[in-house]
């Protein structure tokens, strides 16, 4: 067996907590941990793609932890939501503050959706929120 196909490279991740809203949309809440003092204290819009009914925003939290709230038209675990969810992680990490953990697991266990073949923000149909507009640290 070639080592690149070894199960030792697999990591089990956790999906955020999700529920169906009264409106028929789905909400997924991801716990995001930052270094102490880096967590935004205000809500920050991250990504909006109306073509697929996807929105993500950070909900202001504690000094170290906040929540990424994703609202989607499709079921939370629908394949259409994976790329913009992972793009949201990348946007938060690159434009707001460096993520330490997602759902209590190392940030690097989750894909970053920074494939050069995918135009930002994700498919070009959405908009990226302005983290710098509310005074968040940007890189």
Notes on the protein architecture:
This protein is mainly β. It has one helix at 82-96, and strands spanning 17-20, 26-34, 44-49, 54-59, 65-72, 99-102, 105-106, 127-128. Strands 1, 2, 3, 4, 5, 6, 7 and 8 form an eight-stranded antiparallel beta sheet that branches. The chain is globular. Residues 107-139 are annotated as: Disordered.
Largest sheet: 8 strands, antiparallel
Averaging pLDDT over every residue, what do you get?
80
- Count of beta strands: 8
Distance between the termini: 42 Å
Helix content: 10-25%
H/E element string? EEEEEHEEE
Low-confidence runs: 115-126, 130-139
Task: Write down the domain tally.
Answer: 1
Radius of gyration, in Å, reads 15 Å
Tally of contiguous helical segments: 1
Q: Which range does the strand content fall in?
A: 25-35%
What is the overall shape?
Answer: globular
- Given the helix and strand composition, which structural class is it? mainly beta
Features:
single chain; 139 residues; mainly beta; eight-stranded antiparallel β-sheet; 8 strands; 11% helix; 29% strand; disordered C terminus
Summary of the model, kept short:
Residues 107-139 are annotated as: Disordered. The protein is mainly beta and 139 residues long.
Layout: helices, strands, pairs:
Elements: E1 17-20, E2 26-34, E3 44-49, E4 54-59, E5 65-72, H1 82-96, E6 99-102, E7 105-106, E8 127-128
Antiparallel strand pairs: 1-2, 2-5, 2-6, 3-4, 3-8, 4-5, 6-7
Region (Disordered): 107-139
């Amino acid at each position: 067996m070639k080592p690149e196909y070894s199960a030792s490279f697999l990591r089990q991740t956790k999906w955020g907590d999700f529920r169906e809203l009264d409106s028929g949309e789905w909400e997924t809440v991801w716990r995001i941990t930052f270094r102490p003092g880096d967590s935004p204290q205000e809500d920050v819009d991250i990504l909006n793609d109306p073509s697929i009914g996807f929105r993500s925003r950070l909900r202001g939290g504690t000094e170290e932890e906040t929540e990424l709230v994703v609202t989607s038209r499709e079921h939370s675990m629908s394949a259409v939501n994976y790329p913009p969810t992972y793009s949201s992680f990348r946007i938060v990490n690159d434009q707001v503050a460096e993520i330490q953990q997602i759902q209590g697991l190392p940030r690097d266990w989750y894909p970053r959706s920074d494939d050069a073949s995918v135009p930002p923000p994700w498919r070009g149909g959405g908009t990226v929120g302005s983290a710098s507009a509310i005074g968040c640290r940007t890189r």
